[in-house]
């Protein structure tokens, strides 16, 4: 099975799509693809989320489309059945991690402290999401975890923006930054797809040095 990092390739932005309709999800994904984005996360927070995930995969077969906000076994099964290419959770528990261990696609469990990191590692996971990143210690936390868990890499999400993304991306154990700031609800509502494209182009620029 490919790792999450392998799916990312050179992409350093994990753009989050929250859609109220399948058509809206396709439009957002299309705007992101125009920026050279090949991998996106659809958060399962609306009734149309699964339909949006499936519609994006149908409209853009080459795009890697993951499912986020997976919090239990039922949501996990639904996401896998819908064709999710990877799974992301906002948090971890022993029960959820046990369910995720048999997942047929890459999984990025969400952690918020060192106990979570240890729990995830004990269940065999070394690619983790720090959430909410800025409220959970930010780049300083990820740097500190590098000394204790050198095998672990992070994709921080929550409070990330163009103003602080390079602070995270400069760390060797940070593979990408995630967030919805590149597709805020106001831009989606007004169909400002060009703004989403431009924001993704800026956000997907790796940190210098």
UniProtKB/TrEMBL annotation:
Its EC number is 4.1.2.14, 4.1.3.16. SUPFAM superfamilies: Aldolase (SSF51569). PROSITE patterns: ALDOLASE_KDPG_KHG_2. Pathway: Carbohydrate acid metabolism. InterPro entries: Aldlse_KDPG_KHG, Aldolase_TIM, KDPG/KHG_AS_2. Keywords: Carbohydrate metabolism, Lyase. It comes from the Bacteria. One of its GO terms (molecular function) is 2-dehydro-3-deoxy-phosphogluconate aldolase activity. Belongs to the KHG/KDPG aldolase family. Homotrimer. This is Keto-deoxy-phosphogluconate aldolase. The lineage of its organism: Bacteria, Pseudomonadati, Pseudomonadota, Gammaproteobacteria, Alteromonadales.
């Amino acid at each position: 099975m490919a790792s999450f990092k392998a799916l990312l390739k050179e992409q350093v932005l994990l753009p989050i799509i929250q859609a109220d309709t399948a058509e809206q999800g396709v439009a957002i994904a299309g705007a992101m693809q125009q920026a050279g984005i090949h991998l996106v996360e659809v958060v399962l927070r609306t009734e149309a989320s699964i339909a949006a995930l499936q519609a994006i995969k149908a409209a853009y077969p080459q795009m890697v489309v993951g499912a986020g906000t997976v919090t239990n076994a039922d949501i996990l099964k639904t996401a896998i059945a819908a064709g999710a290419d990877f799974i992301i959770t906002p948090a971890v528990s022993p029960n959820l991690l046990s369910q995720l261990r048999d997942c047929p696609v890459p999984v990025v469990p969400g952690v918020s402290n060192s106990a979570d990191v240890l729990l995830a590692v004990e269940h065999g996971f070394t690619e983790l999401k720090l959430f909410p990143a800025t409220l959970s210690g930010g780049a300083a936390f990820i740097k500190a975890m590098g000394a204790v868990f050198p095998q672990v890499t992070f994709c921080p999400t929550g409070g990330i923006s163009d103003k602080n993304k390079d602070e995270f991306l400069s760390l060797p154990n940070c593979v990408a930054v995630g967030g919805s700031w590149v597709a805020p609800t106001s831009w989606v509502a007004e169909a400002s797809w060009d703004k989403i494209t431009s924001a993704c182009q800026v956000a997907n620029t790796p940190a210098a040095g």
